[in-house]
Amino acid sequence: MHQEANLAELHGVQPQEPLPTLWPHFVGLTHQFGKRQAAVSLHQGLSWSYSDMFDRVEELSARLVHLGLQKGAVIAVSRQ
User: Fold this and answer.
1) What are the extents of the domains in the chain?
2) Exposed site from 4, 14, 35, 64, fewest CB < 10 Å?
3) Over 13-71, what HEC string results?
4) CA-CA distance, 54 to 18, in Å (whole number)?
5) What pTM was computed for the model?
């Protein structure tokens, strides 16, 4: 079974074009809906507009760059 996974990796189809990212779509939504509600957490009492969420994403991005991540790096987010 492990060998099959290796073969799939070796012979898998690679995309010819870079895969699109969510960023352009998210920026467009932010410009279009700015102050409209984007995310709500009732149990935390939080409500973020698209502009609020954009600001938080930009802040997280700056922190990751400060930690040494570069454009194109792949990360995983896990909450334990």
Assistant:
1) 20-63
2) 14
3) CCCCCCCCCCHHHHHHHHHHHCCCEEEEECCCCEEEEHHHHHHHHHHHHHHHHHCCCCC
4) 24
5) 0.64
